Every structure is written in structure tokens, then in C-alpha cells.
Amino acid sequence: MKKLDFNCDMGESYGPWTMGNDDAVMPHVTSINIACGFHGGDAHIMRKTVANAIKYQVHIGAHPGLNDLPGFGRRPFPISPDQAYDLVVVQIGALAAVAKTQGGRLHHVKTHGALYNMAANNDALSRAIAQAVMDIDGSLVLYALANSRQAFIAQEMGLQVAHEVFADRSYQDDGTLTPRSTPGAIISDPIQAIQQVISMLEKGHVTALSGKQIPIQADTLCIHGDQPGAADFARQIHEALKRQGLL
Questions:
Q1: What secondary structure letter does DSSP report for 27?
Q2: What would the mean pLDDT of 26-43 be, rounded to a whole number?
Q3: pTM (2 decimals)?
Q4: Distance, CA of 144 to CA of 197 (rounded, Å)
Q5: Which pLDDT value is given to residue 1?
Q6: Are strands 141-145 and 160-166 parallel, antiparallel or unpaired?
Q7: Which of 52, 104, 147, 173 is in Cβ range 3.0-4.6 Å of 99 for a Cys bridge?
Q8: Within a 10 A sphere around the Cβ of 66, how many other Cβ atoms?
Q9: Does residue 175 contact residue 147 with C-beta atoms inside 8 Å?
Q10: Average of pLDDT values for 140-158?
């Protein structure tokens, strides 16, 4: 069975506001996705998070989102493909520059929140985002929702894609994530999360909220650093994956 990348969204604090417990989570993951200032994060947090990533030898990824700091980038609103392209270019560029100052470089890009969900099955947005990544650095890996249109379009355009699955989110019958406003959307029990991940890897499917089994490809596994108890959640999943020889 192949090894699994284990990623977490980080660097989402800004100014006096603290989101998550990045320092405690980072030792348990292999990749991180750093907010680039539009939905969370700021210049200082970006630099601090990059430096810690280099210290812990984890892959550094840009995590561009909608320009919606008050809504944490999780409120969908219409944007054109050109707007999506510009948003992604500016945010990747900013983090790439920060990484360079610390002696590091970007490994991947993963869109955040509403932009991630909007692009998952929107061909025009998917192409715009993939083109932005390619125009900056075609060697970057795009992390995209497993089996989504975004993943397949990016692959067709020549990008390396990591199909992403989630330990702390449930799924709908079409393979998309359950909206956060729906009961059962968030998985807070580490045992349940671990069972879901192992099933994805061993059986190649995930069980949706309805009970339907959905075929799924798992290259990278995500947990959210802003959820309560994220550090312990990450530790338990890390240990379980290690025991199974998956990490």
C-alpha cells in the first residue's frame, strides 16, 4: 500500500487574533498549507510559519482563498475566472517570496474554503487556478478534492495533482464534502476519522452520510488546524497511520 501525505491548513492567525495551534500540530504532519493574507494570515505569520515548516522539514504549500478576511474565506460569492487567476497568482507569489527569504521553496498549492469548493466542479475556475499555478511554477503540485473536476482538469493541463481526502469531514453522495452547516459535516471523534481514512486507503472508497459507498483516490490527507483539539487529533491520526505503515 502506498504512503500517504498528511497535510494541515496553517498560518491563519493575523494581528492579535489566534487561529489553531500550529506549533503543536506541525510535528505530526508531512505538509502544511499556509494562508496568504486574504482569508487569514499576515506577513509576520507567513514568515513565522514558513520558518517552522523548514525547522520540522515539512512540505510548504500556498493556501490561497477568497478576499474575505471577516468570513474566513468560507462564504461563497461569484468570481470570474480572471479574478480567480489574479487571486491565486498574487497569493502564491507572496508566499513564494516569503519562503525564499527563509531559505525554503514552495512544494504545492491548495485553494482554501469556498474557493476550494467552488472550483471542485467548476471547469472555468479550475482551469484558471491551474493556469495560475503553471504560470508561476509548473513543478508545483496542486492539491485538489479527490476525483473532482478540478483534479482531472489540472492533470489534463499538465500539472501534478494530489487527490485530497479528509479525516475530519463527511462526504455527500457526489463525492463532495458535506456543507459545514449540515449536521454530521464535522468528524470530531479521532477513532471515526481514522476508520474513515483506513477505509479509503484499503478499500478505495468512502462511506457518505447516506451510507452510499463512493469510490475515491487518496494521495494526501487533510485535517483542519482551526478545529478544537486539532493537535491531539493530528497526533492520534499520525500514530494510527504509522502503525498501519501508511505514513
A1: G
A2: 97
A3: 0.93
A4: 17
A5: 60
A6: parallel
A7: 104
A8: 25
A9: yes
A10: 97
Q: In terms of Cα–Cα distance, which of 179, 193, 229 is closest to 20?
A: 229
SS3 letters across the chain: CCCCEEEEEECCCECCECCCCHHHHHHHCCEEEEECCCCCCCHHHHHHHHHHHHHHCCEEEEECCCCCCCCCCCCCCCCCHHHHHHHHHHHHHHHHHHHHHCCCCCCEECCCHHHHHHHHCCHHHHHHHHHHHHHHHCCCEEEEECCCHHHHHHHHCCCEEEEEEECCECECCCCCECCCCCCCCECCCHHHHHHHHHHHHHHCEEECCCCCEEECCCCEEEEECCCCCHHHHHHHHHHHHHHCCCC
Cα 237 to the chain's mean position, in Å? 16
pLDDT digits (tens, 9 = 90+) for 175-234: 888 988 899 898 888 888 888 988 888 889 999 999 999 999 999 999 877 777 788 888
Please report where in the chains the cell 493574507 appears, as a residue: 37
pLDDT at 37: 96
| DSSP string covering 140-184 | SEEEEETT-HHHHHHHHTT-EEEEEEESSB-B-TTSPBPPTTSTT
Whose cell is 487527490? That residue is: 163
Domains and CATH numbers, the chain: 5-166+218-226 (3.20.20.370)
pLDDT tens digits for 86-112?
A: 999 999 999 999 999 999 999 999 999
The vertex-12 CA angle with 5 and 246, nearest 5°, equals 10
Neighbouring C-alpha atoms within 13 Å toward the C-beta of 154: 36
